[in-house]
Amino acid sequence: MVIGITWLTVPSVGFSMTDLNVTELGIPQWWQFMYPLLQVAADGREWARRDLYSAALDRAGVPEDLRLIQYGPSGNYAAENRVGWAKSALTRVRLLESVRRGVFRITNAGRAFLADHPYEFKQSEL
């Protein structure tokens, strides 16, 4: 099913979903979830994966109808999948860390990076 772009403002990010490079599904690209993920994790607490993903989707302003889009036979949710790729990238560059299986938190490097990039950042800046 193809869904059109939803016209929402992304809280505290300085751009709207119309500015994002969304796919034909209407969901932002995976790398566009990195900033909302770091913003959510900036509270310093330990986040269970599902809670972190949901909070990042909230922060990015992704509406419920787009969150419910599933990939064909796998049944995986497309938006959650993209947040997962963003989380993996942030973990790989050590801005997020795995505390234990399925639990993540921001690192000191992640806090410093977010302080240096208070409004947004590009994937190439990692």
UniProtKB/TrEMBL annotation:
Pfam families tied to this protein: Mrr_N
InterPro entries recorded: Mrr-like_N_dom
Residues in Restriction system protein Mrr-like N-terminal domain copies: 32-115
Domain of life of the native organism: Bacteria
Protein name, as recorded: Winged helix-turn-helix domain-containing protein
Organism: Microbacterium terregens
Lineage: Bacteria, Bacillati, Actinomycetota, Actinomycetes, Micrococcales
